Amino acid sequence: MLSARPVRGPFRNLRSWANAVLIAILFAIPWIRIGGEPLVLLDVPARRFHIAGLVIFPQELYFLWLLVIGAALALFFFTALFGRLWCGWACPQTVFTDVFAGLARRIEGWKGSSRPRRVAAWRVGLKHGVWIGVSAIAAFHLVGYFVSPYQLLADTRAGQAHPAALGFWIVCSGLAYFDFAFLRQKFCKYLCPYARFQGVLFDQDTLVIGYDEARGEPRGKRGRAEGDCVDCGLCVAVCPSEIDIRDGLQLGCIACTQCIDACNGVMQQIGRPEQLIAYRTLSGVTGWAGLRPRARVVAYGVLLLAVAGSFGALLGQRQAMGLHVAHNRDSLYSTMPDGRISNAFTLQLENRTREERRFVLRLVEADDFDLITGMNPVTVPPASALEARVFVVAREKPDTSSPQRVRFVLEPEDRKSRGLVRETRFLSPGQTHGDG
Hints:
Elements: H1 10-28, E1 33-34, E2 37-38, E3 40-43, E4 48-51, E5 54-56, H2 61-82, H3 85-89, H4 92-108, H5 121-143, H6 149-157, H7 163-183, H8 186-191, H9 193-197, E6 207-211, H10 213-216, H11 234-237, H12 258-270, E7 277-281, H13 295-317, E8 321-327, E9 334-335, E10 341-351, E11 357-364, E12 369-373, E13 378-380, E14 384-394, E15 404-412, E16 420-426
Antiparallel strand pairs: 1-2, 3-4, 4-5, 6-7, 8-10, 9-10, 10-14, 11-13, 11-15, 12-14, 15-16
């Protein structure tokens, strides 16, 4: 059951614009490309994550973790200041629920604040058809964060879409339809984990949606009670979570501000001051005046700056290439006919730039070893990783009394930047302790 039609007001108009902007951003991001590379693409099969021009390889997942930690700290920081700002203004659950509700009201022909008593069957069918179509579009763009939407669209048109991508699209479409058409704010009220722990982030100076009980009570019909609240019930009727804000701060409140616009409209009609329901702190201070620095907010801010600084420092030290060395597990070492020992290695060469690069492999400080490669220099495509199988052969029978080390060097063919050095153990009979 949809709530009453939201009352038009400053917050409602602002929410409409915010919803349009957020949906445009969410839908545009998968299509944006920088230098031929996607702005955001979580390419799980290729084990590469493209984020704002940065290509993160599996060995660099600390970048991804720092982004996640930074996002969490930002959520804590703004929640401590502004309460459930994310829930009411930026969460896709709220944004798309608003869109679905708006489409339903237009298609069903709502007049005033309530649903018509009788809605034609064709209108109901059209409503669900539009909901399914919007769900499919939203799900397509969600899949577009994991599979290039250009490739997915071309493959779908040609009937060659990958079963996993197609199945993910269908499942997400069904879940979106169920969620935004039927579950709606019940998810926020009963299932969302953020709603459960937000209380520990609040303090007496957190800005929330609140009812001025001292001014509004005792409530009653106009002229029959001393309080300003005329008990019209409009604040409850427009609430998507179906709560009564006059009962105090509740888990179901998503700070959507619809009750503020509704109450302000009633106050204007009866000639009483607005802001009976308004943004105010838990201590009762109305508006932005209650915001002030305090230990909780400062702590979150410092941690957020520390994470941002760490991310920037690691990004500044990041090299344009990567080298990872591992013994071939199928054959750690082998003995050649002349008695010499050889080791097989698998090298992973990473090109973290957006241009094709040619790299040279060699050994350093290894007068007793020879490097045998199938191709050297090695060409690595842009923003890609390539595996190379190589052999290191001891020129003489190695001394097995102590472990020996070999050092690989990967450097650009043009020598314009310094090379990477990776050290590993050369294994001989009796020394099978793996890489070190």
